Amino acid sequence: MQSVAEENPALSPRLQRTVTSPRTSAERAQRRNRNLLVPVDDADDCELALKWMLENIYREGDTVYLLHVVPYAQAAYSGVFLAPSPHEQDTMVEQARAFMHERYIKILSAKQVPYHVIIQKGGGDADSIGQLICHKSDEVDSAVVAMASHTKGRIARYVVGSTTQFCVRHCRATVLVMHE
């Protein structure tokens, strides 16, 4: 199985949605050789979402796309967004490759599931990351986006938003949300 890492620093954190296919999400889900997108980070609930998707959604001929977003900026306690240095971003990309191999690629390889790995730089807040996920879903023409809910309290969801909520509302593909 091949692993492909894509990095596109030219992508704006505020992506415009474009129509890439006239298919509805139902038509995508019914076709053979589907693409299944799984946004991941180094969390147990993401691993659970991947395993559940492999057990219940995946069928022979499908391809799994693992997507991890390395943020351009992270919020500090003061509410100011701080951009990591290029060296810090490179370190974050290498850390992402390492945890994706340890956590996810081993699972896919053991089950002989075809996969691609996408490590995308961009975003910093929930909506920006959600836009990147929806954009990649359109780009790979995914039939399903399977993601973990990353349960947060109401205040945290209000203050920082929810990437999962954004994807449920804006992705053209069917979004499967796994709750732990």
Say which CATH homologous superfamily is assigned.
HUPs
Overall structural class, as computed from helix and strand content, comes to alpha/beta
Strand content: 15-25%
Total of domains: 1
- Architecture in CATH? 3-Layer(aba) Sandwich
The CATH topology, please?
A: Rossmann fold
Mean residue pLDDT: 79
Cα-based radius of gyration, to the nearest Å: 16 Å
Q: What is the element string, with H for helices and E for strands?
A: HEHEEEHEHEHHE
Distance between the termini: 29 Å
Spatial strand order of the main sheet: 5-2-1-6-7
**How many DSSP helices?**
6
Task: Describe the structure in your own words.
- This protein is an alpha/beta fold and 180 residues long.
- The chain has a single domain, classed as Rossmann fold (3-Layer(aba) Sandwich).
- Helices cover 41% and strands 20% of the residues.
- The chain is built from 6 helices and 7 strands.
- The protein has helices at residues 25-30, 44-56, 86-110, 126-139, 154-160, 163-170; strands spanning 35-39, 63-70, 74-75, 81-82, 115-121, 142-148, 174-178.
- The strands form 2 sheets. It has a 5-stranded parallel β-sheet with strand order 5-2-1-6-7, with helices on both faces.
- The two termini are 29 Å apart.
